Amino acid sequence: MLNVTNVGEGVRLQAKLFRGFGDPARLNILQALRNGPVTVTEIVDATGMSQSNTSNHLRCLRECGLVTAEQRGKFALYRLSDDRVGDLLAIGESLLADVARGVYECTRYNLPQGRSQEQK
What we know:
Blueprint: H1 7-22, H2 24-32, H3 40-47, H4 51-63, E1 67-72, E2 75-80, H5 83-105
Antiparallel strand pairs: 1-2
């Protein structure tokens, strides 16, 4: 467990962690990785995002420690860095099943105009 002497700093770090899950493109990639290691091409096929957008988000996810990559010849296989990342995605789905209406109707968490999961 992270030893943070300042409670506020712990909350800031946790908020930063959840930013990785808060972007639709990154969340889409994390979902694509739930079933095991895949290549960028397979992630592109699964998400419908462009290769460059996918690579940029994968870099972000790797730098934040949510995703790892293993070089296999000329390809890299990407995977979730920890089983708990997948567990957190599953918990989110379970919670969403119970609170979906409230989340759908919530106006405070809307994405800024022009942003969508399909951004390429």
